[in-house]
């Protein structure tokens, strides 16, 4: 199925959609767990029936390889949606805390109810347009929240397909897709939401957070940044190089947790480059430009932004460097001897360039990371437990992965989360559900308890409250 391009949603349509969602929430139909399970099942069918159409749309938008479309997007949401259906009763069960409290309170039914927050908004980026809209949508459905999704305006084929299919498979009174960009997001931000889940760049993240603050709206910000790799000399360098290069080539480096630069002991820099070359030749026997496994850069603006970073580097290009302007494709490229202050160390690269930064020791690496905004992920390659612990204790980042890159996204039980400059809140699997749930504390104090409570009323007769 190839969806027609869906035009931008008008502002009046968008306001009407918001009103419909609010009405549906008030109607109480989303409180019914079997309704939620049915919508989740519909979401699973949407993904199962149309994964090939999604592969095609992603290829059309920016040349994403079908395997990456499947194992990185539709497959992940499909699997986690089934997981949500199977676990929803457990996830929604209220928690009786009477056995954990002070015995004085156990008779007062201390309970956490799992309550839907209300209508929510989901804003997605271009680089994984299915995963980063439909996974939060899965969470919203499971949590009983009606949702508006605003997918990226840069992936017009995939966003149009999402629009068409969500309205075809799901209840349009509760789940709507808004097409468009700045104008639509600006208008959506004027409306009152119970929660906003935003995934994208930090600049827009700030706009979203400021608008949400004006309405006291709960927000999840999944942002980007520069994810460093720290390489120890006590390492299997061929394996490390292969895993780092793989993490870099996925989606042509357009992934929030892509390894951005490698802090490498100076004395092993050349050995590391040799291992990277070996891996590069294995991955791309006919060259990276000819390889069908690497995609293109999303649009001209980003393509020339990435090329400009490369043109201005004072480092030495040692692998790749060639570009195909027509297909907006750049070879997976490695630059060595990159120094602090270099064009490659300014902003998130978000393209297929790996900067290798030589350092004297781990302390210099840690100091460099500490002097920069908190990354979404820190990667450490080492066989030395003391080295690994030292990095863990002396860095702050959303996640911390030892001896691999990128793979954390495949583990549903591990949340995707940032800290500081890389965002806040948790996403992925059950966390996508929890984001949209209010854990509502409750007690029910029986009249019969009154004699035991008299001590709390004035006039006070005691100075301590001994039980
Ligand atoms: P972006 O910030 O340009 O766009 C994200 C969304 O915001 C899009 O839907 C877009 O239409 C909308 N938007 C753009 N400009 C806007 C404006 N001025 N006002 C209101 N809305 C606006 O991000 P992108 O380029 O699509 O995505 C790349 C970024 O997302 C990278 O920084 C990457 O690291 C980050 N990202 C983070 C995660 C994560 O889980 N932490 C995952 C994927 C991508």
UniProtKB/TrEMBL annotation:
Q: Does the keyword Methyltransferase apply?
A: no
Q: Which domain of life is it from?
A: Eukaryota
Question: InterPro entries per the record?
Answer: Ald_DH/histidinol_DH, Ald_DH_C, Ald_DH_N, Aldehyde_DH_dom, Aldehyde_DH_NAD(P)
Q: Which UniProt keywords apply?
A: Oxidoreductase
Biological process (GO) annotations held by this record are: aldehyde metabolic process
- Span of domain Aldehyde dehydrogenase: 7-438
The family database entries (Gene3D superfamilies) matched by this protein are listed as: Aldehyde Dehydrogenase, Chain A, domain 1 (3.40.605.10), Aldehyde Dehydrogenase, Chain A, domain 2 (3.40.309.10)
Catalytic residues in the record: 222, 256
Record's GO cellular component terms = cytoplasm
- The keyword Oxidoreductase is assigned to this record: yes
Q: Name one GO molecular function term.
A: aldehyde dehydrogenase (NAD+) activity
Concerning Pfam families, the annotation shows: Aldedh
What does the similarity note say? Belongs to the aldehyde dehydrogenase family.
What the entry lists under PANTHER family is as follows: ALDEHYDE DEHYDROGENASE, ALDEHYDE DEHYDROGENASE TYPE III, ISOFORM Q
What is the name attached to this protein's record? Aldehyde dehydrogenase
To which species is this protein native?
Clathrus columnatus
